[in-house]
Write a structure and sequence with these properties.
Layout (H helix, E strand, L loop, with lengths): L13 E4 L5 E6 L11 E5 H15 L6 H14 L2 H9 L5 H40 L1
Length: about 140
Amino acid sequence: MLRALRYDLGWRTYPIRGEDVRSWVDIPCQRWDPWTPEKVWELHGDVAENVLRRILTYQDIGGASERRITDAAKAIEHAGPAGEFTESITGDRRSLWKMGEAGTIGLKIALNELVERRTLNLEVRVLEFFWKKKEE
């Protein structure tokens, strides 16, 4: 059972796009020797998304240069909406290390945008629900 995750080893994490539109995360287990890409802890759904966002935040704790942020924003714009960017960057099984700094910053921006969009959609649905109740 995975009880703790060292975020400083997060560069070896593999974010992968899942069937349910959410990501899942493969985290290498340090106890398996020799390690292969099949010997991982798999996290799915909301848990995977939260862990991935925390890993990306930890990796970016020192901040990023304006140039890196601009490069990440351009990569997102080039791919289309944030969901399409996450699909494109997680489509080929690459670790965060192999995505590079601009890729991980872009992934962090795109994931945060997707979470904000889902939150806003929930708020709209709540407001619509209360509005219909008031009309009744």
